[in-house]
Structures are given as C-alpha cells and as structure tokens.
Amino acid sequence: MRVSHTLKSMEREKLEIVAGLLQQAGYRAGKIDWQTGINIVRLSRGGISSELDERARIQGIVDHFGIDDWTATFS
User: Fold this and answer.
1) Could you give the dihedral angle defined by the CA atoms of residues 23, 47, 71 and 44, in that order, rounded to the nearest 10 degrees?
2) Angle, to 10 degrees, between the axis of helix 12-24 and the axis of helix 51-65?
3) Among 22, 53, 58, 64, which lies 20 to 30 A Cα-Cα from 47?
4) Mind listing the pLDDT tens digit for each residue in 41-68?
C-alpha cells in the first residue's frame, strides 16, 4: 500500500523539521510550498502494511509538533 500525506502549518520551520524526520524514516518529501498564507509539504511512502498504524504514527508527530492540518491518502 502507498500513502501520501499533506501537512500544513503557518510555521515553515515546523514543516522543515517534520519533513526531515520523515525523510530519515524513508518518506519522500516534496519542497515546502507557500499557498494562500500557509506552508504546505507533501510526503509519500510505499510499503505501508497498515493504514491504522500509519495514521497513528503520523498523528503522534502532528500532535507533538502542533501541525495545523494533516490529510492522508492511501492507495
């Protein structure tokens, strides 16, 4: 299974830190974009075995860093 995450934050530095950590864990990160007053980064990874586990893992990171918005798409 493949997952694509979109994270949004008013603070670019938070996204830089989170994207860096997730890249070390095997995720591919796009560059951080600025759209309509908010920073956005998209990350993806293949080989996901459990949607529930993946959501819990990323939710913990989102909560810890205070990311404003997060969505995930599984395929």
Assistant:
1) 40
2) 140
3) 64
4) 999 999 999 999 999 999 999 999 999 9
For the entire predicted model, the pTM comes to 0.92
Record the tokens describing residue 70, joined without a space. Answer: 């997060």
Cα–Cα distance, 29 to 10 (Å, whole number): 18
Alpha helices (runs of H) in 1-75, residue ranges in sequence order: 12-24, 51-65
What lies within 8 Å, CB to CB, of 74 at 6+ separation is 1, 2, 3, 48, 51, 54
Instruction: Report residue 59 CA to chain centroid gap.
Output: 9
| Six-digit token string for 53 | 């586990």
